[in-house]
Amino acid sequence: MNRRDNLRALVAAISISTAGVVACGGGGGGPAFVPAAQDKPVTITSLGTNTVDLWNKVAADTVTVPAATSGTPEERQPLYDADMATLNVAIYDALAAITKAYRPFMVTMPDDPARGSLSQDYAVHGAAYTVLSTLFPSRSAKYQPTNDAALAAADSDAQAALQFGAEVARKVLAQRANDGRWTPVPAYVPGTAPGQFRGVNPVGLTRPYLRPFSLRAADQFRASGPPALDSAAYAADVGETRTMGSASSTQRTDAQTENARFHTEAPPLFWTRNLRQFATSKPTLVENARLMALLWVALADASTACFESKYHFNFWRPTTAIRLAETDGNAATEPDPQWTPVVTTPNHPEYPAAHACNAGALGEALRQAFGTSRVQFTFNSTVTGTTHPFDSVEAMSENVQQARIHGGMHFRTATVHGRALGEKVVQQLLREHFTAASP
Q: Which of 121, 164, 243, 391 is the most buried (most CB within 10 A)?
């Protein structure tokens, strides 16, 4: 084998062993994604290991390390979706510049006819390593071995590609610097009025201030708001969650309980692991990079928009709403002071449901990326040790919505509006980004 062959073998071996923006290069060019012929189902299968997949696994291990008390802003407050988006945008922009197949997302490099001969694999290595080593210098044990192995397999021709990938990454990092994750916010004061969230020291307070990747502002698609407390819609929401989400429910099935628990795995671990299957689903390296950048930008901006809506409406969780139903002014709701949800409720406002925001964004991204809603894939959860197959993006989104209701964490309206918010984020994203290069 020559050194290039050794590199390919290395990527395959490592991948197998670990298996388990306001942009200056935005709109224009051809359509973002081409519809599938006759809307036929698409089954997600691996077309072979590659460097995009490899570095997504390495990045997942890096960004999901618990926050440190010192170091870079990212080390002290990692935001897995935003950090994964930064990594994948850098990879995509480097490959877009080499292949000229698609318009870059964030960084447009000066034209260079000789760039087309650069090694795409080594450009990925250079971009990914630069992002991780810059954002997380104290976590080098997670990514340095992979970089060292790549360098050991590199020949002299690979150096230019490594340097180019690193150059693109530095430009992406410059645009994402001081991204707002450390914006000072006032201490949270729990609400006391009917309908107000009562959490103490809730999480995600600064998330609405994170600079979006593609949205014009975090409130661009602010949700329309929960139903009025005295409305029939609100009473229906309360009744459903009270019955189906209670720890003592006799109407929730074992399968529904399993599904509620399935989606309680910590999102950074759940999403970084389950999204990797899409990194090997396309036939070329640049197409896989494009898809992964799309998915992670979609999740990052959907989360930012979702938390902006959450803290704007500051709506109470079912546990509070059901226990204090005598205060809501709705004759159709009844208080149950002992009501308890079957799974633990996250400590941030109820509306809209963050899991539904993410599911809506992911579903819409996959629908547009594969030209059909009938995308067939599976997710797995370490909480239940089970795997869930989905035959469409709608099935996945509905599965997530049901899980949050049957878990007693959310009302139906929050899941419906959350899903719609996520879909809107992606529809706007793909109107302006990830388009084919102009002929």
A: 121
Phi, psi of 390 (to 5 degrees): -130, 135
- Residues in CB range of 102: below 8 A, 6 or more apart: 29, 92, 96, 286, 290, 434, 435, 436, 437
- Of 212, 143, 140, residue with least CA distance to 176: 212
The amino acid at residue 39 is D
How confident is the model over 294-318, as pLDDT tens digits?
Answer: 999 999 999 999 999 999 999 999 9
Q: Which residues of the chain have pLDDT under 50?
A: 1-28
Tokens of 373: 């809603």
Task: Report the pLDDT value the prediction gives residue 39, as an integer from 0 to 100.
Answer: 75
253: left (phi over 0), alpha (psi -120 to 50) or beta: beta
- Residue 184 contacts by C-beta under 8 Å, 6 or more apart in sequence? none
Among residues 298, 333, 284, which one has the least CA distance to residue 215? 298
Q: Which residues contact residue 98 at a Cβ distance below 8 angstroms, ignoring those fewer than 6 apart?
A: 115, 116, 118, 120, 123, 164, 286
pTM over 0.90: yes
Task: From 99, 368, 332, 353, select the one nearest 229 (Cα to Cα).
Answer: 332
